[in-house]
Write a structure and sequence with these properties.
With about 400 residues, the protein is of the alpha/beta class. It is built from 16 helices and 13 strands.
Length: about 400
């Protein structure tokens, strides 16, 4: 029996490109929404071009379906529409009239030129939830600037607190590996969209949502900007140190690295017992979490000395001992090790779905778990314009002649 999603009956017009906006639309699709992805005729979403990895077909030949595109576009139908064409613009307005949500990440003012901005769409559908995702937001002195994820990691302060501390090898601001600001902004957009849908259902009123990557990255650092606002404290880069209790750090083993995080006195006491130093927690410099934080420059090298014998021991043996003592710790895994991990397998973090080119496709599952309406994987990331005729026929009621005319005029 097909599981009914929590958002079954909600239709989303996804006019996003690359990652933040498509990510938000994908999350809604996972939860059951009918998502229509609008792409440029010919080239499609530019995220399709972002390598280095591209899907291979059944014969092992590389296709134009990039891993980045695949990561953010399942559970969608694709239609190609030329926004520069008046008839293409009319198609978008007609589709928007039939949708509950529109998500876009064009530069501020770009869609107004085509009569596709919030005011124009609201005129044809007052109940629509129109979500704009941009780098700097819809207002302010920087609102017209372009930008990508790494720019906002830099400008929003994330890079300044990421990387090896000054004085250590490789010191300097460091980008977080994945496009994390895009993903966080997309996820925050979903929260806003769901709240706006709840408000609309109660009041009948749609609204415009203004999401900015710069806003998101600052908010996402939680306690770090709070420290500055409270006391003017600018946190330095701390490398692998945790932001809460301590000590928290990477530890070298014979066959790799593990990470240990002592978040409270109990953790610290038990680690010291394992290390043969039960006296250390009684040292007046280390008796409480705040004291250990204040004296981290003394405690950190001392702990490295105590961990030195572990360089001759296997990760698994050490972790078994730490877990038995209920100490938060884990191996530093590469992605091969991640997907071979028994917990990852148990949680079904990787799922296999059918794909029209490759036959089957492995994807990362939604992290959302719900008992009654769990996420589902109904559609593979679509090919460019794969569903154009289907959407125009089924949603707008166009016949073959009308669709052929749009194609002849390069509107689709």
């Amino acid at each position: 029996m097909q599981v009914k999603g929590a958002l079954t009956g909600i239709r989303v017009l996804d006019m996003g490109r690359v990652l933040a906006s498509p990510w938000a639309a994908q999350m809604l699709g996972d939860l059951g929404a009918d998502v229509i992805k609008v792409e440029r005729p010919g080239s499609g979403d530019e995220g399709r071009q972002y390598g280095p990895v591209y899907l291979k077909d059944k014969d092992g030949k590389k296709t134009s379906e990039s891993a980045l595109y695949i990561s953010g576009n399942r559970n969608k139908r694709s239609i190609t529409v030329n926004l520069a064409s008046p008839k293409g613009q009319d198609v978008i307005r007609r589709l928007a009239k039939e949708c509950d949500v529109l998500i876009e990440n064009y530069k501020v003012g770009a869609l107004a030129r085509y009569g596709l901005d919030y005011a124009s769409i609201k005129a044809v559908n007052p109940r629509i939830i129109y979500c704009s995702i941009t780098g700097y937001g819809q207002s302010g002195p920087y609102s017209s600037r372009p930008g990508y994820d790494a720019i906002f990691q830099a400008e929003g302060g994330l890079m300044s607190v990421t990387g090896a501390p000054d004085g250590e090898p490789g010191a300097g601001p460091t980008k977080v590996g994945p496009s994390i600001v895009d993903v966080m902004t997309g996820s925050n957009a979903v929260v806003a969209i769901l709240a706006a849908l709840r408000h609309r259902d109660a009041s009948g009123e749609g609204q415009h949502i203004d999401m900015a990557l710069l806003d998101t990255v600052v908010a996402s650092m939680s306690s770090i900007p709070a420290q500055y606002l409270i006391e003017g404290f600018i946190q330095p880069r701390r490398g692998d140190e945790g932001n809460g209790g301590g000590p928290s750090q990477l530890v070298d083993c014979e066959d790799g690295k593990i990470y240990i995080s002592c978040g409270n006195n109990g953790h610290f006491n038990r680690v010291c017992e394992i290390l043969g130093r039960p006296d250390l927690p009684k040292d007046p410099r280390f008796t409480t979490t705040p004291l250990r934080s204040d004296n981290r420059k003394i405690l950190r090298p001392l702990m490295y000395t105590l961990y030195e014998p572990w360089k001759k021991r296997k990760k698994a043996d050490i972790l078994k001992q730490l877990w038995a003592a209920d100490i938060p710790s884990g191996a530093v895994n590469n992605l091969k090790e991640v997907f071979e991990d028994e917990q990852i397998k148990h949680r079904e973090v990787a799922v296999t779905i059918p794909h029209p080119i490759s036959g089957t496709l492995k994807i990362v599952a939604s992290p959302i778990r719900m008992s009654a309406t769990p996420p589902t994987y109904r559609r593979a990331p679509p090919l460019i314009g794969q569903h154009s005729d289907e959407i125009l026929r089924d949603i707008l009621g166009m016949d073959e002649a009308a669709i052929a005319e749009l194609r002849k005029e390069k509107a689709i």
